[in-house]
Amino acid sequence: MIRSAPPTQRQELGDFARSVRERLLPSDIGLPPGGRRRTPGLRREEVAQLAGVSVTWYTWLEQGRDMSLSPQALARLARALRLGRAERAYMFELAAKRDPDQTESETDHVPPAMLTCVNFIASPAYVLDRSWTARGWNADAERLFLGWLDGPGDKNLLRYIFLHPMARSLIRDYDNRARRVVAEFRADVSAHVDDPQIIRLIDELSASSEPFRRYWHERVVLEREGGERTFDHPEDGFSCFEQVSFALSGHPELKLAMLVPAKHPETVGPVEDL
């Protein structure tokens, strides 16, 4: 039995757009019913006109071609296709672009139920936004991450690692972990490289931290993975955890990280990231 290759993100984006187009009725967009149509739903020409794009551009998008997709054109297409919130987020995720109509308050907002959940976790746990700024954490995380989560200062994880002196003494195998964190951050913000907030953060860290500048220009890209995390706390001493991370349903730019106590903390190997 010959199995077909799985669809690429561009192919899935094209199939998704076509599926939505075929479900729409002319009356949904204020057009008269007209005569019989050869295909269900709207015509490509009608969607292209509503979105302010060329018919060729929209046809190539449905065909899954490797083409330029600007966030502004995608936003107009989302409005033309009458996409709901979840559908719109799905389309931008497939296109690996940031929705230009999404405000910072929407992306930074942490649902109260999630904060309640974090407080019930019996180990260090925190929530990061797309710029890796902590938006919520529990008491165990506050106690562990001195200089980051225990006071009124800046809550960005990258600023803490590269600019706060406490990080170097707290985090074991600091140099290797710091390098990997930058590689993971590059992968994580690949869809937001034109975000002014991300640009400002990278520029600031590049100017203030020689190690960050060096690691960033290495252009190493790694997925953020779980694994062993070890710390030397000035009051609690050595601690060893296993990190587990989750994305929040409906809020893909928020990530929950939990540090679960390791079963055998006496066995310590090299660590990779925070």
Automatic annotation (TrEMBL):
Domain HTH cro/C1-type: 16-88
GO molecular-function terms, A-Z: DNA binding
Matching SUPFAM superfamilies: lambda repressor-like DNA-binding domains (SSF47413)
Pfam family for this entry, one: HTH_31
Protein name, as recorded: HTH cro/C1-type domain-containing protein
Species of the source: Paramesorhizobium deserti
